[in-house]
Amino acid sequence: MKLASPIISWRLRDSSQRVIDSAPAIIQIVIAATASFAFASFVLGHQSPLFALTVTITSLGFSRDARPRRIFETAVGMITGIALSEVLLLTIGPGLWQMTLVLLISLIAARFISGSAAFALTVGIQAMLVYIMPAPEGGVFIRSIDGLIGGATALILTALIPRDPRGLANKDAHKLFELFIDSLIALNIAVRSVDVKLVDDALARVRRSQPLVDNWRLSLESAIAIARISPFLQRHRRELNNQIRLMRGMDLATRNLRVVVRRVDFLVDDGQPRPYLADLFEHIAEATVLLAEGLDAPEKWLVAQEKFVEIIHQLDPKKFGIADQLREASVLLLLRPLLVDLLCASGMSEDQARAELPKV
Fold first, then answer.
1. Separation between Cα atoms, residue 54 and residue 50, nearest integer Å
2. Distance of CA 92 to the CA centre of its chain
3. What would the pLDDT profile of 259-284 be if each residue is shown by its tens digit?
4. Looking at domain 165-355, which CATH architecture does it have?
5. DSSP letter at 270?
6. Disulfide: which of 67, 150, 199, 222 matches 56 by Cβ 3.0-4.6 Å?
7. DSSP character at residue 234
8. C-alpha angle 315/347/360, rounded to 5°?
9. Helix (H/G/I), strand (E/B), else coil: 198
10. How many CB atoms are closer than 10 A to CB 166?
11. Are 295 and 166 in contact (CB under 8 A)?
12. Using CA atoms, how far apart are residues 170 and 247, in angstroms rounded to an integer?
């Protein structure tokens, strides 16, 4: 029983953090659902406007992708399923074979309209809900109107009560930076003390880095899309656009870091410490810390850029007397594209960054 306590504690922390992270989405969904239901019920007089609620809640959801386009597509899918089912219900009437035909037609139409599997399932589910539920007072197309209200409310609330997309993008960025910097620190220690296990652990971590890049890209794209329609985020559009450059540079740098770590994994097998290489990794890590701090203080990007330029000028095997040692020289040569990517992330153009490379 004593062993279970830390596990339970970890799960409680994980669950609590999930609730905290979801709080903006929860608040947005609750307000939007209440608003759509109130408008359909009290303003238009619809009885039990179920589809105003379902379309609103499903369109907003808890997805990391909170782009207005994704919300619009989800709402359109649901409304399409509702309207199509209502038309077919009036045309061929109720019944088992009729229901089967409605579902078949709904799924075919959905797949024709969109390549998204989620879109097709959304259309099919809404079509079935309409088909098996009794028609409300005022006519069957009342449900289509409720769906339109739900979709419109979801889009309006996305603009008026955004989910702090900047905060999510920054959080995802810091996760990638943390992994990147930790890997460089591990390489620094490993080549200085010839710790093979440390390199192996770093290699395992860096190989799992792509989901972090993908999460950052998606949350950043969502933040930019919401900033285009939200009056409260307009002033942050330039900041978010600059972060795209940072994300693209770090994406490429992380890919190159994987190659560097693999090469170092082979290099340390000979048991020889390499302090000069450890110093390089340490300096790159320090400059990358400044790059990460630029998310909150953009002026740090220029400072990081200056440090990266100092480092890239050292990436010549002849300076360390290893030009004829292929195993060691290959690590320095692999660091060259890595530093070019980091310079691009800091704001330098690719041509300018390449021009800083020493001739070899």
1. 6
2. 45
3. 999 999 988 888 888 899 999 999 99
4. Up-down Bundle (1.20)
5. G
6. 150
7. G
8. 20
9. helix
10. 21
11. no
12. 10
Q: What is the pLDDT of residues 51-76, one digit of tens each?
A: 899 889 988 888 777 788 888 888 88
Q: Go through 265-295 and write b for each residue having 16 or more CB atoms within 10 A of its CB, e for each that does not.
A: bebbeeeeebebbbebbbbbbebbbbbbbbb
Cα–Cα distance measured from residue 288 to residue 19, given in angstroms and rounded to the nearest whole number: 31
Q: Which residue has the tokens 């950052």?
A: 216
User: Cβ distance 345 to 253 under 8 Å?
Assistant: yes
Q: How far apart are CA 259 and CA 132, in angstroms?
A: 57
10: confidence class by pLDDT, cuts 50, 70, 90: low
For helices 50-60 and 4-38, the axis angle rounded to 10 degrees is 130
- Going by the DSSP 8-state scheme, the letter that residue 48 receives in this structure is S
- Alpha-carbon gap, residue 257 to 264, rounded angstroms: 10
**φ, ψ of residue 316 in degrees (nearest 5):** -130, 115
Give the integer Cα–Cα distance in Å for 357 and 281: 17
- Distance between CA 36 and CA 158 in Å, rounded? 13
Please give the pLDDT value at position 37: 93
Whether the CB-CB separation of 94 and 85 falls below 8 Å is answered with no
- Ordered by start, the domain boundaries in the chain are 4-160, 165-355
The pTM of this model reads: 0.78
Question: How far is CA 316 from each of CA 260, 278, 301, 334, 350, rounded to the nearest angstrom?
Answer: 16, 15, 25, 11, 19
